[in-house]
Design a protein that fits this description.
Blueprint (H helix, E strand, L loop, with lengths): L1 H39 L5 H8 L2 H11 L3 E3 L5 E3 L1 H4 L8 H13 L6 H7 L3 H13 L15 H27 L4 H19 L1 H11 L5 H6 L5 H5 L2 H12 L20 H23 L16
Antiparallel strand pairs: 1-2
Helix pairs in contact: 1-8, 1-9, 1-10, 2-3, 3-5, 3-13, 5-7, 6-13, 8-9
């Protein structure tokens, strides 16, 4: 009789433990399927996908280079071409158009794409506005159940785990000390032992349900599936130049270049910084002059008086 009561009690507790796990699996499987269907119906615009990948400025610069609006030298400085200086010629998409306008504001000074991306006043704002506009068109991804942190539920869960562990110890002790007689009692003992073993695997079963029903990042996987067409069309040299210009955040600053003179009381360190800025400005001027299509002959330097 004790084996029968123990088997029934263990089976009831096991069912009570696994019922929420089964319910969680059912809810999460439904949400996962709905999420995948929503993402499958999304057709992200190429620049929106580039924004989600963090490559929007790179893709815009690539389109300007391929379209003949910009040329980038080996040091990462971007210059307008004749086509880029023509105000009547502008890319159709707003992002490369915004980048081209930013470069035009700095013309004829050398400016890097990285400087515009990080420090320009207008381009980053237009990039953020474009992202907000496109993000509003994305479907609302349902929240996966079981991921929220509720302190009350967490406390109740801890108390339930403690009670189940106490029950498991008591039931195990009764199962071990029992002396089943006959085939029927041995069968009830086997049922009770199977239920206790299942209770030991409940936590692992809960983790498995969460892992197998986790949707991951389906939208991110989709936008990372293929690069922007302009980036894919670049050859290796062009891509290297675009990335180099994008990585130059402080060197080529266009018309935003400011020479700071330190106070006399700051010593030689301030003088060195001023000289560095002055040398940079003179180098940028000489570089820009040497970049003309038909460079003029360099006038001879006056003889030294010494």
């Amino acid at each position: 009789m004790r084996q029968f009561a123990l088997a029934v009690l263990v089976s009831a507790v096991t069912a009570a433990v696994y019922a929420p796990i089964a319910l969680l699996w059912w809810r999460r499987a439904r949400v996962r399927g709905r999420t995948l269907r929503l993402v499958a119906a999304v057709e992200p615009e190429s620049y929106h996908a580039a924004v989600l990948r963090g490559e929007a400025t790179e893709a815009a610069a690539a389109e300007l280079v391929l379209g003949g609006y910009l040329r980038i030298d080996g040091e990462g400085a971007a210059f307008l071409t004749e086509q880029g200086r023509d105000p009547a010629r502008t890319p159709v998409h707003p992002l490369p158009a915004a980048l081209l306008e930013a470069v035009r504001r700095h013309d004829p000074e050398p400016v890097s794409i990285g400087w515009i991306h990080w420090w320009d006043e207008d381009y980053p704002a237009r990039l953020r506005a474009y992202r907000r506009e496109r993000d509003a068109l994305l479907p609302v991804i349902p929240r996966m159940p079981g991921g929220e942190r509720n302190p009350l539920l967490a406390c109740c869960g801890c108390a339930a785990v403690a009670l189940v562990m106490l029950f498991w110890l008591l039931a195990g002790a009764l199962l071990v000390t029992g002396r089943p007689q006959g085939l029927r009692e041995w069968a009830w003992t086997a049922v009770a032992a199977f239920g206790l073993a299942a209770l030991l695997l409940a936590e692992k079963a809960s983790r498995t349900v969460r892992e197998r029903t986790e949707p991951g990042d389906p939208l991110g996987d989709r936008v990372r599936a293929e690069p922007h067409p302009a980036l894919a069309a670049l050859d290796e040299e062009q891509r290297t130049l675009v990335l180099r210009s994008l990585g130059e955040r402080d060197r080529w600053r266009g018309v935003d270049t400011i020479v700071h003179e330190e106070a006399d009381d700051e010593g030689h360190e301030g003088d060195d910084e001023w000289l560095d800025d002055k040398v940079w400005w003179e180098d940028a001027y000489e570089y820009r002059a040497s970049d003309e299509d038909e460079p003029d002959a360099t006038p001879p330097r006056p003889a030294s008086s010494g």
